[in-house]
Amino acid sequence: MAMARTGKQEAIEVPWLYKKLNPEVAAENAYVGYYKDKGKCCYGVFEGIIAELRKEVGSPYTTIPTSMMIYGEGGIAETANICGALNGASALIFLTTGRIEIEKRGVAYALINELFNWYEQEALPNYRPKNPKFEIVKSVSRSTICHASVSNWCKTAKFKSFSKERSERCAWLTASVAKYAVELLNKNFEGNFKPVHNLSATVQSCRSCHDEGSVLENTRGTMDCGGCHFTQKIKHPKT
Amino acid sequence: MAMARTGKQEAIEVPWLYKKLNPEVAAENAYVGYYKDKGKCCYGVFEGIIAELRKEVGSPYTTIPTSMMIYGEGGIAETANICGALNGASALIFLTTGRIEIEKRGVAYALINELFNWYEQEALPNYRPKNPKFEIVKSVSRSTICHASVSNWCKTAKFKSFSKERSERCAWLTASVAKYAVELLNKNFEGNFKPVHNLSATVQSCRSCHDEGSVLENTRGTMDCGGCHFTQKIKHPKT
Hints:
The structure is a homodimer.
Chain A: E1 2-3, E2 12-13, H1 23-35, H2 40-56, H3 84-97, H4 106-121, H5 146-157, H6 164-190, H7 201-210
Antiparallel strand pairs in A: 1-2
Helix pairs in contact in A: 1-2, 1-6, 2-3, 2-6, 3-4, 3-6, 4-6
């Protein structure tokens, strides 16, 4: 932890001290946080993990207004863009492992990238809360975007996007993301984190023409391209 | 402002006191914040506005670790999902106008939705910093997603996605988003905010079959559907 670099503020800047947490406790907190005050996905993950850090570390975790993170609800203010659980987890991961110096951000970004790739590739939610409202089937999202993730689950589960079951699925997903984020942070704390979910060969193929250093170099990023592009009947132009 | 509801923490929960700010000063701060410490888009907007609130309001703005928001860089840890400038602005808008009670979140969410619709529909960046590195042409993003917004600009400007010019465009965009966010917050502070960028008739048509209360009800959200779906040669199935 480092004190602010100027006299202008008293804020304690990243990284804040992390201590190993119980992933299942964080998951249960996140599930409760989703429903408590109807804080939903982003708040659920962020508050669910911070609550344990308040106990294990104390200050400065006692000072951060976790209610700010409610904004990530439903992909930010219900716009259904980035999954709120991922958004809240990313902020928390950077708070605890991030660095202001750009050349030292790699650790936090590797943890976040692993979380995002896991979210796109695994059948989720994979954490069942102790006292669920419903049983929830799993689906593979192929996207870190709220509305795509929701639509793919609705198709698999045969429930509507504003059903109580879909909301419960997002509560389980909030718990699942909190659990995996803590597992990653614990591994990093112990010095043995290695990414296990990598970009697929297909995505790497897309990036070889469209990402940094390529011939076209007309986009960027590490999202699963095929989750949105060249689906259904549309084919990629011949190369 | 309200003190935390339990004895477990000392955090001051949302909403934090807002005072009218100068949008152009926030924009210049955001531009500088993009480059300073290479904080980039999300941090640039968040720190750019908070810096003024530290001056105008003081505590508790002096206590928040704005460096946490670096995580939004390049659509969250360079994954190129949600535009970082929008992510940082949304957190700031909720911090200053949000409420824990779900039935009182409408004001903050209306401000965020206006910002998102503006971002999709307007030719941006529309703020020219006082000391730019390059001159930057405008484009219409049709998407709040980083990589789509970048790709549309690259197509219009004929620069590559990892060029210095594209980075400068994102710095101008960071400034533009900070400026419009402050304009919206000022209007809300004065009690005369009204949304001026609404969902298009096309998006409303999509939502009439796919969103809440519709026959299919298989997705959600307020993003511009046509920015990604049924582009190029693919047509919507006959209804």
